[in-house]
Design goal:
The chain is of the alpha/beta class. It is built from 23 helices and twelve strands. The N terminus is likely disordered.
Length: 532
């Protein structure tokens, strides 16, 4: 197309496509090299804070300025938040496009889900299954473990076995393996440790079968099932590949082997795939991320002539002053080297900065010292909103937050794990527990002793004596029977009657409802919003 304006600078242009590129961005030489790189496979080895999002956005903007169709571009990142940011930055940089032809932006899982929704019938996938969250996974794992009649697993420590089961199941899915792959490494005549060891993949296999029977699906299954589609049906690969001219892969160092296989199957044919990553910032190894994916990108996504893809660096940190970058580089010398990476460099306008360390006698002294440092800087003109405190563990936040509030410093806390300490939330959780497991005596006592029913210790002792005398298996069984209980006064009997009237319909509806629907029913029935 006949685009007016100068093509030399990616920015400051208006063409007959109606594309307006922003002029505020002044790329560094490193960024300019990436922005101007031809449409071919490219690995960007980015350090911390070099403006990588701006770089990849302007790389696409430059391609659009040269005539590329923005709607034939795909950006993939990890989280919904990152996808929203990338989408917003692209819209801001590209401006309004004719017929709303914006680039497609997705997370790795939502991209797989879109393929599965369109082509899932090829592998027998039926749309409409429930996507499991951590609560669903935990509940199903516990049900599977409790259903095991003869097992070498120690089920007296059920939470630990549940976590081990879920960890193994995720690892198998993320690495495209199954329980049989684990069994293949067992000796022909397993001893007792091996018998115990193999009981877990047996449980994982049962978990997967139960999941399929219930039409449940996990995030890892989205990738695995999509891989089945693209590896078994080349025509699907051709169809998907024909839709895109350029692909941006963000945070590529955090992809796992299954995601790597999906992406190489679809796009490793000389397409203009740009992968951005920093092996020093791999944060998802605990759930299967492989640094090798970033290391292997040049050979996984070769040029059309078969040669390895080019790697270009981003090393100029735009966030930090010089001493902070010096410290970061000193820390980095203790880490393994990775191909394409280099030491961070300060921006030309970076100040000297400061790095301060203190060794305090107690945790309380440390918290008070941090508050004094923040107060001192604020008095010298630094806004409270421009300061932050990072802690390695959540527990360390509590004394620091207390010291900040004591010093009358306004503070916003990401999370101190206090949600379950909110009384209304704790009450709601207690109701959910007695609906799911009627024998949960601790949850029942919280409900009965709370503000709605107000039973005391003497009342509970009378209920317990009556339950033992009647041979009831739990306190709840006795509470739900309408027979009078010796030792309870009229007010306590009325409270139990009101509890039974509330509990029984909730219990019946919860057996056929989802967890969110059950939560909503409890909130509505108990009128918790009025309490809140």
């Amino acid at each position: 197309p006949d685009l007016s304006g100068d093509l030399d600078v990616p920015g400051a242009r208006v063409g007959n496509r109606g594309i307006h590129l922003m002029t505020e961005f002044a790329p560094s030489p490193e960024q300019a090299a990436i922005i101007d790189y031809p449409p071919a496979p490219l690995r960007i080895a980015a350090g911390a804070g070099p403006g990588k999002t701006s770089t990849i956005v302007h790389r696409l903007a430059a391609a659009v300025a040269r005539g590329a169709d923005p709607a034939r571009s795909l950006g993939i990142t990890f989280t919904n938040k990152a996808a929203d940011e990338l989408r917003s930055r692209l819209a801001e940089t590209l401006g309004e496009t004719v017929s709303g032809r914006e680039p497609e932006v997705a997370t790795y899982h939502s991209f797989a889900a879109s393929i599965l929704e369109e082509f899932g019938g090829r592998v027998g996938f039926t749309a409409g299954g429930t996507l499991m969250d951590e609560g669903h996974r935990s509940q199903l794992a516990v049900q599977v473990l409790r259903s095991l009649e003869h097992t070498a697993l120690d089920l007296t420590a059920l939470p630990q076995r549940r976590d081990e089961l879920l960890h193994l199941e995720s690892a198998l899915v993320d690495n495209l393996l199954d329980a049989q792959d684990v069994r293949a490494h067992a000796p022909s005549d397993p001893d007792r440790p091996w018998t115990t060891r193999l009981a877990l993949p047996d449980a994982a296999e049962m978990y997967q079968i139960r999941k399929q029977d219930l039409h449940l699906i996990e995030y890892g299954d989205l990738i695995r099932l999509t891989i089945d589609i693209v590896t078994q049906h080349p025509d699907v690969v051709d169809e998907i590949r024909s839709r895109y001219d350029a692909v941006l892969l963000d945070e590529y160092q955090d992809t796992d082997r299954a995601q790597q296989l999906l992406l190489t199957t679809l796009f490793a044919s000389g397409m203009a795939v740009t992968a951005v990553g920093d092996t020093d910032q791999t944060i998802y190894e605990w759930r299967g991320a492989s640094i090798d994916n970033f290391e292997d990108f040049p050979t996984d996504f070769p040029d059309t002539d078969g040669s390895p893809a080019t790697t270009l660096p981003l090393t100029i940190n735009r966030r930090s002053d010089r001493l902070i970058i010096d410290m970061a580089n000193a820390v980095r010398t203790q880490l393994p080297d990775s191909s394409g990476s280099a030491q961070l460099r300060p921006h030309d306008d970076a100040a000297r900065g400061s790095v301060v360390a203190a060794w305090l006698r107690t945790e309380a002294d440390e918290a008070t010292w941090i508050a004094s440092q923040i107060r001192e800087r604020h008095e010298h003109g630094v806004r409270f909103a421009d300061m932050a405190v990072l802690c390695r563990k959540r527990e360390s936040l509590r004394p620091i937050v207390a010291a900040l509030r004591e010093a009358e410093i306004p503070v916003s806390v990401g999370s101190m794990g206090e949600l379950l300490e909110v009384p209304e939330v704790a009450d709601l959780l207690a109701w959910l527990r007695i609906l799911s497991h009627p024998g949960d005596e601790g949850a029942l006592l919280r409900v009965l002793m709370g503000g709605r029913y107000r039973l005391g210790m003497a009342d509970l002792a009378a209920i317990r004596r009556a339950a033992r005398a009647a041979g009831d298996s739990s306190l709840l069984d006795r509470v739900l029977r309408s027979e009078p209980i010796v030792g309870l006064d009229e007010a306590a009997e009325d409270a139990l009657s009101r509890f039974a009237t509330t509990y029984e319909p909730l219990f019946r509806s919860s057996q056929a409802s989802t967890v969110p629907a059950t939560i909503a029913a409890v909130i509505d029935t108990l009128d918790y919003w009025a309490e809140v």
